[in-house]
């Protein structure tokens, strides 16, 4: 195959920053593997804190989500619901400032009023979900998509953040959450905790981009760690994680003996105050997001399945795979450690859905560290490389497929190694009853 120089340059331009991120993640994993045996809890946590500092010195890079977080918190402090108003709504003009609205002052009219609309027509939906140069908030014509626990988090941070510092308050909060999760993992195993705390991905998405997925990762990890001794508390943590981002609810089958009803009750209870306040508007932009991702017409996004299947059957196959994984997780919970089950279940779900946004993989990094399964880092790394290839569906599918092959290969090699080690141990003299002639005590009487 002949590749032109222009194509190489174009690929480097798309993959450059994400390629550096991928190489950096692999380098951290290698360093931890080679030199991490003597690490202590304090050392891991301190270095994790230092890793967060550079991101705090720059505005969010990977997305503008943090500006929406700031707005949602500010709206709630003012006594309004981000589910019932869009950012450009003139009724909230008094909440505008030059950081979030550089092109629209509180005295200017946007022309947007009334309850939010989320149209179902693809063309109209694309128009409504487009950005506006007057504001840094993404999709300012649609309501928020973030669930209630995330909204509570935004509100608490907004309470302590001056308007003039923009996203810095959320960046600091996300960095502190990442450090707290590093400590939580380090108490279990400092060496593996470094896989999370020192990760360039975590540094980028916490201290810089302030993505709320860091909070979801912390709650998921707390749920897994507390599940054995305090199953009800673990279920509350899992339900709260689902109310930060919906994806953690996929782990419910793994918690089958650990109060999944409590988890669902926690999730539902978090919505009750908002339902009482705004009714069905509590769904926010979720219907629009699902429509844009193809879940309404059967052409759901799955970059790997898209390599082989037409859109009309892709969603069916994805649903069957997800159901199979759920059943497998439900049946294997008694045999495998919970952390391991959650790790492969979450990672496999990401490989099936291949979400557009790579920071969705943050909880998987924490679960990989907790389960001691570094091969699953291939999935979030692939997500960034695919993100750099946005618009090239086939290339994205191949990247994710390569990550899947890496994971399956690592699992196969590990199982063979364990099987061979077990067979060797079973054949050893200590287990077979045979006497080891090389270590048999000498018959001193016969020697004389």
TrEMBL record:
Q: Where in the cell is it found?
A: Cell membrane
Q: How does it sit in the membrane?
A: Multi-pass membrane protein
Q: Kindly give the Pfam families that the UniProt entry links to this protein.
A: GT87, MptA_B_family
Q: Which key words are in the record?
A: Cell membrane, Membrane, Transferase, Transmembrane, Transmembrane helix
Instruction: Name the GO cellular-component terms.
Output: plasma membrane
- Protein name (Swiss-Prot/TrEMBL): Uncharacterized protein DUF2029
Give the transmembrane ranges.
Answer: 39-59, 169-187, 208-228, 234-255, 267-290, 313-331, 338-360, 397-413
Regarding protein family, the annotation reads: Belongs to the glycosyltransferase 87 family.
Q: Where is this region: Disordered?
A: 428-448
Q: Which organism is it from?
A: Kribbella pratensis
Where this protein primarily resides, as one coarse class? membrane
A GO term, aspect molecular function: hexosyltransferase activity
Read off the InterPro entries from this record: GT87
Please list the residue ranges that the record marks as compositionally biased, kind Basic and acidic residues.
433-448
């Amino acid at each position: 195959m002949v590749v032109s120089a222009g194509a190489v340059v174009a690929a480097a331009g798309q993959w450059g920053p994400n390629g550096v991120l991928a190489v950096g993640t692999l380098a951290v994993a290698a360093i931890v593997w080679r030199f991490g045996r003597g690490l202590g809890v304090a050392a891991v946590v301190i270095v994790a804190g230092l890793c967060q500092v550079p991101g705090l010195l720059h505005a969010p890079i990977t997305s503008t989500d943090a500006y929406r977080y700031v707005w949602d918190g500010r709206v709630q402090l003012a006594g309004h619901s981000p589910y019932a108003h869009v950012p450009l709504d003139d009724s909230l003009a008094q909440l505008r400032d030059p950081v979030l609205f550089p092109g629209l002052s509180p005295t200017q009219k946007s022309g947007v009023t009334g309850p939010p609309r989320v149209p179902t027509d693809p063309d109209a939906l694309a128009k409504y979900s487009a950005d506006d140069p007057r504001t840094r908030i993404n999709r300012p014509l649609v309501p928020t998509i973030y669930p209630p626990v995330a909204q509570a988090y935004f509100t608490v941070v907004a309470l302590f953040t001056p308007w003039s510092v923009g996203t810095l308050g959320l960046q600091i909060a996300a960095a502190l959450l990442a450090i707290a999760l590093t400590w939580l993992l380090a108490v279990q195993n400092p060496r593996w905790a470094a896989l999370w705390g020192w990760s360039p991905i975590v540094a980028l998405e916490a201290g810089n981009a302030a993505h709320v997925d860091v909070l979801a990762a912390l709650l998921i990890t707390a749920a897994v760690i507390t599940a054995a001794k305090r199953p009800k508390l673990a279920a509350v943590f899992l339900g709260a994680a689902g109310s930060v981002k919906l994806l953690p609810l996929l782990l419910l089958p793994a918690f089958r003996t650990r109060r999944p009803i409590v988890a669902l009750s926690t999730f539902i209870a978090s919505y009750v105050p908002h339902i009482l306040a705004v009714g069905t508007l509590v769904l926010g932009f979720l219907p629009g997001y699902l429509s844009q991702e193809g879940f309404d017409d059967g052409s759901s996004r799955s970059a790997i399945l898209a390599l082989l299947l037409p859109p009309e059957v892709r969603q069916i196959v994805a649903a069957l795979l997800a159901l199979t994984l759920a059943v497998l997780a439900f049946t294997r919970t008694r045999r495998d450690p919970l952390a391991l089950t959650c790790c492969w279940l979450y990672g496999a779900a990401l490989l099936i859905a291949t979400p557009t946004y790579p920071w969705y993989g943050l909880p998987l990094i924490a679960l990989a560290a907790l389960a001691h399964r570094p091969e699953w880092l291939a999935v979030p790394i692939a997500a960034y490389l695919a993100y750099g290839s946005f618009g090239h569906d086939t290339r994205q599918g191949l990247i994710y497929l390569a990550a899947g092959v890496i994971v399956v290969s690592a699992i196969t090699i590990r199982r063979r190694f364990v099987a061979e080690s077990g067979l060797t141990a079973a054949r050893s003299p200590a287990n077979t009853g045979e006497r080891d002639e090389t270590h048999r005590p000498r018959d001193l009487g016969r020697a004389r």
